[in-house]
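**Polypeptide and fold**
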Amino acid sequence: MLGPVILAASRSDRMRRLISAAPVTKQVVDRFIPGETVSDIVPIIKDLTGKGLQLTMDVVGEDITTPAQAEGARDAYLALIDHLKELELGEKVEMSVKLSMFGQALEGGHELALANVRPVVEAAAAIGTTVTLDAEDHTTLDSMFAIHEELRKDHPQTGCVIQAYLFRTEADAKRLAEAGSRVRLVKGAYKEPAEVAYQQKHEIDKAYVRILKTLMEGEGYPMIGSHDPRLISIAQELAHKAGRKLDEYEFQMLYGIRGDEHLRLAAEGHRMRVYTAYGTDWYGYFMRRLAEKPANLRFFLRSMVSKG
């Protein structure tokens, strides 16, 4: 399988330099990351929301090695919120954050990440929107869930992400499927050992459906993070069987992937939220997009051959 190889490359400084230097890379990266600054991204926000789509914004960058860098990540999100305030889009545009950006892996990282993410959640709430905590590798999840629980005491709309390929996730979903919760379900994009995660696609897909059924039958707000047509169809069936209205769940897909499907679902009355990343530290995010979906890798390789 190429996925683990690509994920290993995402942590290689040599591969980072090689791929960053390729002439075609910027053109391909722009498909997934449409800007480096808030000013770059504002026209994208206006365009997508004008088409009836919603967004979740991600300021890319996970290689945080100092508390000062973690504070810089916090400030980047606060600057984004200032711009969103001017746009007056409310819950149409929320934010997704990785706690590694807020210092989670540093000494005293749990407390540091909580201290840095709290003002972002508070500022988001002040303009009528919210924040979702992205899931990272399995070693970080207990800390992420604890921070999520703490933030929800004052801001219950704070969301979190769970990953279908992890064995623990079915139990996590049952715990999280409560009134007022917002939970995004994804397949998972990190290289995880066989001791903690399913390794085969068919096993992951079956787990995804089981977990989604739990979320749909619960009292929270499920967010279906998938581009898989079969899983999207199953999600619609499960929502119907659970008696959910169209505004009681939503679909989420990545910017740059299946854009026509974004518009189709929105036109049918579904809430369709586009995960839109921006920033200069794009490498790790880009490599995970290649690892998640073979078609993304083929697109990149074809571009390198034809344009390089």
Observations:
- The chain has one domain: 37-281.
